[in-house]
Specification:
By secondary structure, the protein is mainly alpha-helical. The chain folds into 3 domains: about 90 residues, Fumarase C, Chain B, domain 1 (Orthogonal Bundle), CATH 1.10.275.10; about 240 residues, Fumarase/aspartase (Central domain) (Fumarase C, Chain A, domain 2, Up-down Bundle); about 60 residues, Ribonucleotide Reductase Protein R1, domain 1 (Orthogonal Bundle). It is about 65% helix and about 5% strand. The two termini are about 40 Å apart.
Length: about 425
């Protein structure tokens, strides 16, 4: 992944040094298990533990010649261990090492993503509480619908972030498995209890069954989970972009001192960070499709998944990590404009109260369809002529025949629509 999107912590997870260190952890864990069974002399294990070293640059140089990364790794390890290297990689196949080590890297990456997602949820909770009572117009199909609050908008995102935390925790557990079962998964040259012991030492669970590889439905579940998380971030970013439109301008992402929005138009303050989040979400979604394609392999294993995973696993975790921290920055600095929210709230001349008028007329005995026709006719007039919906209703004899002036006025109280907001917040644990 290109450096500009990589935080050092996540980038380190996918470095060559980290990968080869994880491979070495697996090999050493197997050696320790063998030593406990008498297959490796104690003095040889002591030398292996003390002298085992790998040099990423040297491994890469060897790989350029032998065209096999694990053989290059073992060759470099043999250079460090000498004769004791005969005790290393006994009974194993390359994927025993690579897949088990990959699980370790994915655990590290997941921990970073979970930390970012937890912080995002905290920021969303703070935003939801800050604007719990900030009046806003709710929209459906982009059209004014009924009263809501800006806080409820953030509360929806807060709830979704909570679901995403659970999704990611489950996905992390799904790929927390290793395998030390040999060339086709039959334990022909290594016993199942060795696999169980090695996985336990590494903080993993042994895959109940494997071929030469851990089955890729696990990795597909993981990457599709990342795609869902990216889509949720895109959802927030898309809303901020919408709210920042000049015609709406109810909220605006932070605009830093010295920042410039356009090479041609000095007045521009564009939602570029939110647009970036939306764009990067497309890449994570595309990677999810590639992960699904990796599930079906020839027989007990082919290598078609390997080249794909070398791209999609680092890229997806790096991209999502970047998107999370970008969105945290946006939300921490988000400008919300209550006056503009109120101005837009009034823009439809009171039409957003139409349903309550409809229900009140039906409650008074009018057939619902007739009540609907009366309210709709007045609503269309109010919109066409840019007049007060409430005043038009107050002059309609069919309305005044059933509703007293005070009853009609009550229909235009936004507080009535928002009387259960605290209930929603208590459901979310925000109150």
């Amino acid at each position: 992944m290109i450096d500009r999107y990589t935080r050092p912590e996540m980038g380190a997870v996918w470095s060559q040094a980290t990968k080869y260190a994880a491979w070495l952890r697996v090999e050493l864990a197997v050696c320790e298990a063998y030593a406990r069974r008498g297959r490796i002399p104690p003095d040889a294990l002591a030398r292996i533990s003390a002298q085992a070293r790998v040099d990423p640059a040297r491994i890469d140089a060897i790989e350029a010649r032998v065209r096999h990364d694990v053989i290059a790794f073992l060759t470099n390890l043999e250079e460090a261990l000498g004769a004791d290297s005969r005790y290393v990689h006994v009974g194993l196949t390359s994927s025993d090492v690579v897949d088990t080590a990959l699980a370790l890297q994915l655990q590290q990456a997941s921990d970073l993503l979970l930390a970012g997602l937890q912080r995002l949820r905290e920021v969303l909770g703070e935003l939801a509480l800050k604007h719990k009572d900030t009046l806003a117009v709710g929209r459906t199909h982009g059209v004014h619908a009924e009263p809501t609050t800006f806080g409820l908008k953030a509360a929806v995102w807060y709830a979704e972030a909570g679901r995403n935390l659970e999704r990611l925790r489950r996905a992390k557990e799904t790929i927390r498995v290793g395998k030390i079962s040999g060339a086709v998964g039959t334990f022909a040259h290594v016993e199942p209890d060795v696999e169980a012991e090695v996985c336990r030492a590494l903080g993993l669970e042994p895959a109940p069954i494997s071929t030469q590889v851990i089955q890729r439905d696990r990795h597909a579940e993981y990457v599709t989970t990342l795609a869902i998380l990216a889509a949720s971030l895109e959802k927030i970013a898309m809303e901020i972009r919408t709210l920042q439109r000049t015609e709406i301008l109810e909220a605006e992402e932070p605009f830093a001192e010295g920042q410039k929005g356009s090479s041609a138009m000095p007045h521009k303050r564009n939602p570029v960070s939110s647009e970036q989040v939306c764009g990067l979400a497309r890449l994570v979604r595309a990677n999810a499709l590639a992960a699904m394609e990796n599930v079906a392999l020839w027989g007990e294993r082919d290598i078609s998944h390997s080249s794909v995973e070398r791209v999609i696993l680092p890229d997806s975790t790096i991209l999502l990590d970047y998107m999370l921290h970008t969105m945290i920055r946006i939300l921490e600095g988000l400008q919300v404009f209550p006056e503009r929210l109120r101005e837009n709230f009034e823009r439809s001349h009171g039409l957003i109260y139409s349903q309550r008028v409809l229900l009140k007329l039906a409650e008074k005995g009018l057939p619902r369809q007739r009540a609907y026709e009366i309210v709709q006719a007045n609503a269309m007039t109010a919109w066409r002529e840019q007049r007060s919906f409430q005043e038009l209703l107050a002059k309609d004899p069919e309305v005044t025949r059933h509703l007293a002036p005070g009853e009609l006025k009550e229909c235009f109280d936004p507080g009535w629509y928002l009387r259960n907001v605290d209930v929603i917040y208590r459901r979310l644990g925000l109150l």
